[in-house]
């Protein structure tokens, strides 16, 4: 009988202007699972308020899932989920929205305000 492997996902939480904290979740580890799979599992099974973003899933087309995985910029949808502790944080050089969501829209692509018109 094989021992079940787990990952402890340490997740940055908080919104812009709030005192940040880290929440830890024990996530079942499956061979070939991605960090995004673990985040989805947490949202479905542990904390539905966890904020993160993704769209294309493994096509490397949208870049919406970019976060820091153990301190390095990575795509959550393609980053392999290791066993042990994995720390996920929002991109450091972008404006934080909440949890792992940052404002990644280039300034030229933002909708202008009524005053810009
Ligand atoms: S979800 Fe599109 S690159 Fe990861």
Care to describe what's here?
The structure is a single chain. The protein is 9% helix and 32% strand. It is mainly β. It has one domain: Roll (Ubiquitin-like (UB roll)), CATH 3.10.20. The strands form two sheets. A five-stranded mixed β-sheet has the order 2-1-5-3-4, with helices on one face. Strand 6 and strand 7 (101-103) form a beta hairpin. The model has no long low-confidence stretch (mean pLDDT 90). The chain binds FE2/S2 (inorganic) cluster. FE2/S2 (inorganic) cluster binds at residues 54-57, 59-65, 75, 77.
Give me the secondary-structure topology.
Elements: E1 6-13, E2 21-28, H1 35-45, E3 66-69, E4 72-75, E5 84-89, E6 95-98, E7 101-103
Parallel strand pairs: 1-5
Antiparallel strand pairs: 1-2, 3-4, 3-5, 6-7
Bound molecules: FE2/S2 (inorganic) cluster.
FE2/S2 (inorganic) cluster binds at residues 54-57, 59-65, 75, 77.
- Rg for CA atoms: 16 Å
Please state how the strands of the largest beta sheet are arranged side by side: 2-1-5-3-4
Shape call: globular
Secondary-structure content class: mainly beta
Note the main sheet: 5 strands, mixed
Ends distance: 67 Å
> Which CATH top level class fits?
Alpha Beta
CATH H-level superfamily title:
Beta-grasp domain
- The chain-level mean pLDDT equals 90
List the total number of helices: 1
Percent helix: under 10%
- Reported by name, the CATH topology is Ubiquitin-like (UB roll)
Task: Identify every distinct bound molecule in the structure, by name, code or SMILES.
Answer: FE2/S2 (inorganic) cluster
Total DSSP E strands: 7
What is the level-2 CATH architecture name?
Answer: Roll
Q: What are the segments in which pLDDT stays under 50 over at least 5 consecutive residues?
A: none
SSE topology string: EEHEEEEE
The percent range for strand residues is 25-35%
């Amino acid at each position: 009988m094989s021992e079940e492997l787990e990952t402890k996902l340490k997740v940055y939480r908080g919104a812009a202007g709030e005192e940040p904290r880290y929440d830890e979740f024990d996530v079942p580890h499956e061979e070939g699972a991605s960090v995004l799979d673990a985040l989805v599992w947490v949202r479905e099974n542990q904390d539905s308020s966890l904020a993160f973003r993704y769209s294309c899933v493994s096509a490397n087309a949208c870049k919406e899932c970019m976060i820091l995985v153990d301190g390095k910029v990575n795509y959550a949808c393609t980053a392999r989920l290791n066993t042990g502790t994995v720390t996920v944080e929002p991109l450091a050089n972008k404006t934080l929205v909440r949890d792992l969501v940052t404002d990644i829209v280039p300034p030229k692509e933002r909708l202008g305000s009524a005053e810009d018109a």
